[in-house]
Amino acid sequence: MPKYVIEREIPEAGKLTPEQLKAISQTSCEVLLKMGSEIQWVHSYVTDNKIYCVYNAPNEEMILEHAKQGGFPANSISKVSTIIDPVTAE
């Protein structure tokens, strides 16, 4: 299944409390449950003003639908073509 990186512009995301992050995560999981097993949230990285999310999904439209239903921004969606890591150098 294709993997995507979603950039979500959220001012002061890095200042969100653990309770706020939990609520956001719960909303995301509730929407994913309704949408079915075709779309999967892998993990997210929270930075000062953005959250970068990694998802597995059959297409970009499903990512956009998740964002719409959850009330999340999806400012940029990029399909991952390859993953590299230190093992790639061997």
UniProtKB/TrEMBL annotation:
InterPro entries: SCO4226, SCO4226-like. This is DUF4242 domain-containing protein.
